[in-house]
Amino acid sequence: MHAWPASEVPALPGKGRDLQIHDTATQGTITLAPGPVARIYVCGITPYDATHIGHAATYNAFDLVQRVWLDTKRQVHYVQNVTDVDDPLLERALRDNQDWTELAERETALFREDMTALRMLPPQHYIGAVEAIPGIVPLVERLRDAGAAYELDGDVYFSVESDANFGKVSNLDAEAMRLLSAERGGDPDRVGKKNPLDPMLWMAARPGEPSWDGGSLGRGRPGWHIECVAIALDHLGMTFDIQGGGSDLVFPHHEMGASHAQVLTGEFPMAKAYVHAGMVALHGEKMSKSKGNLVFVSALRRAGVDPAAIRLALLSHHYRADWEWTDAVLAEAVARLERWRAAVSRPDGIPADALVEEVREALANDLDAPAALAAVDRWAELQIASDGDDESAPGLVSRTVDALLGVAL
Question: Taking a C-beta distance cutoff of 8 angstroms, is the pair 159, 44 a contact?
Answer without folding.
Answer: no
